[in-house]
Amino acid sequence: MEKPDEIAGGGPRLHDQSADKETVGEISPAAVKPQDRAVHDPSVSFEEYHYYAKQTRLEEEKYPRTSYETTFWSLVFPPKSDAGVQPVAKIETEAAADKVAHTGANNNVAVSDDEWVNASRALRTATRGAIFYLITTDILGPFGLPYAFATMGWGPGIALYTVFAGLAIYSGYLLWDIFMGLDSYQYPIRSFGDLGYRLFGPWMRYLINTLQSIQLVLNVGLIVISNGEALSQVAKFRLCFVVCCLVWAIVGFLVGQVRTLQKFGWLANAAVWINLLCMFITMGGAAHSAPNYAGANSSAGATIANGTLVTPNAAGVYPAVQTSGGIPDTGSFIASVTGAMQAIFAYGGSMVFPEFMAEMKRPKDFLTAMWAAQAFIYFWYMFYGLFIYGYQGQYTVNPSYLGISNYGIQTAGNVFAMLSAVIAAGLYGNIGVKVLYNNLFVELFHAPPLTTRAGKYIWVGLIPVYWAIAFVLAAGIPNFSGLTSVVAAFCILHFTYTFPPLLSIAFLAKKFSMREGDGFDPTTGSVTRQDQAAGETRFKRLVRGFLSRERWWLNAANVVYILGALALAGLGAYASIETLRDAFKSNRTTSYVCKSPLDG
């Protein structure tokens, strides 16, 4: 464990500052300031990241809290805006901010230590209340869960959803622990990929950024399509379906102009309450009206018993609503696995947890917001999913608010769902554009950072392009549940259940491989590793850290966790691909048509 005297002063003790150890294990011959390094500099050691992270955490502990921040209401009603954390010297002009934004190894602009650190502080404005609502701003999770129960049955559905909830909370804790140990004002973490880079190297960052970009753009596309289906239902199918989808892509051009997460906090606040209202309306409609038989071909029953449970008889009468205590007879496990992927969709927020923490005034508060958000998601989503499944059984569709037959209730639910969904899509698009822009345009093409005036203008132009790409990709796939399963199996599952334990193993192995006296010295820029000087290999050092008395049990549990997540991801990928293959084989239409998939 870290000792208090290692972080109380200016830096960690370097083996009691003994003269005979001054040159042991030196990696950097001279001190290089953080602002003089490239954004992703491979020469920065783990010890240096960890040293500055400890200093930043100590400084954050000293920030005074307002009386409002310490109350329950700060979680329920987040403040509209915040000036950021700037206890030293505030950057007064945009020119100064631009100066900081353009510095680095490839730029000779002189930037002081205070300017560099304050530029990072100024970007941290989000509070725990805003983060709570950002995590719970979700449209695909709650409304896909009834479909999951319909394909898995009461018992397996409840059991799996509960297990997924517990593991998602654990993964959120792991990401928080890693972030707290690696993020600092000197070396701020901006994305999930930054965690991978600092622990595994560039290849992990590229992998994470690629999967994250795919998930975010498909999430936006999925919401555009689900909103298009809702709008076509509201218009009684008199409006061409592809036009209904296009309308929401255009709306996204406007919503996507919100740039900071703190400003999204209030939108997210409204979205959560709208979501709950939509859920209550949908439950009322399901309890007092028949299922929407016109959408039976898109229901869970279409995958059960060869579709006989949703096929009308000669007189045009549909079978009665049926539920199952165990896994329904689907003829194969594909439908049930596809349903399980819908349950996983409810816990897809882990993918953007580092981005949320990166804009928090106090990242330590993330844990409270995350626990509250996950408890909220588990209780309300579970209640809603079981309620709808109980009343609609095999006729449950995805998203579930489209399965109400009473037009008045159906329309009310659709309107609220569309409003909530476009806010969620705006959030996904916001982070998606930041990931692409910062890791592609800034790094490869040297585009101006988004914090500069030029970057803000580029943001305005990029948003329509991003939403247009999302619409084109999602609209070309003919099976909504199949597409959500693909996203869950290839992206969401890994960000929530695979990457957190994998990154945690690397973080803990490196952290606990440091011995008494090891660490980074900011005055000389040197790193002391006594065992390295003694000839110990890097691999042996990491194994020793993995087997450390403090955390060997957690590392062993994480290995099992990773293997289980990979096995489930393989099953999910196979099931979703088979589902989409059957959809294309049966010539089921894409979204580039006028007839809505819900219209018979």
From TrEMBL:
Compartment(s): Membrane
Similarity remark: Belongs to the amino acid/polyamine transporter 2 family.
Cellular component annotations (GO), alphabetically ordered: membrane
Major localization listed first in the record, in broad terms: membrane
One Pfam match: Aa_trans
Molecular function as annotated in GO: L-amino acid transmembrane transporter activity
Region described as Disordered: 1-41
UniProt biased composition (Basic and acidic residues): 13-24
Entry keyword set: Membrane, Transmembrane, Transmembrane helix
Membrane topology listed for this record: Multi-pass membrane protein
Keyword Glycoprotein: no
Segments passing through the bilayer: 130-152, 158-182, 203-225, 237-255, 267-287, 333-354, 366-391, 411-437, 457-477, 483-509, 552-577
UniProt entry tagged with the keyword Ribosomal protein: no
Name by which UniProt lists this protein: Amino acid transporter
Domain spans labelled Amino acid transporter transmembrane: 140-512
